[in-house]
Write a structure and sequence with these properties.
globular, alpha+beta, two-stranded antiparallel ribbon, 2 helices, about 120 residues, about 25% strand, about 35% helix
Length: about 120
Amino acid sequence: MRSYPKNGKTKVYLDAFADVFIFVISEPTGAKLKAAAQAALTKFHHWTDKHQLKVSTENSTTILISRLVTGPRVKWDNQIIERSTSLKYLGVMIDNKLNWADHLINMETKLTRLHQKSSRIA
C-alpha cells in the first residue's frame, strides 16, 4: 500500500490498481475518523479532477471495521457514499468482521456454477 499524508497519529493508506482504489483509515474516535476520511477523499478528489478522472459514487462503498456502532458518512461531490457490511476489492470479498465468510460463500457460489456448467458440457 502507498502511504497517504499523515498528520499526528492519523493513519491513512491508499491502494489503487487500474480503476479501483481503496482507502484504509485508522482513527481512535468516530469524529476523527470522519475528519480523516473526508480530508483524504477531498485530496483524492482534487487529484482525480487534475487528471480528468471520474469516480462513480454508484459503484463506491464504505465498510466500517470497528467497534463503533455508527461510523461516519463520507461524501463525494455532496453525494453520500453508501455503507455496506462487505465489499469486493480485486476479487477478494472483505467483510466488516474480517472473518472471510463472505469471500468463502462467494467462492462456493462461483465454483458451484462452474461445476454445473462443466458437468453439462461433459
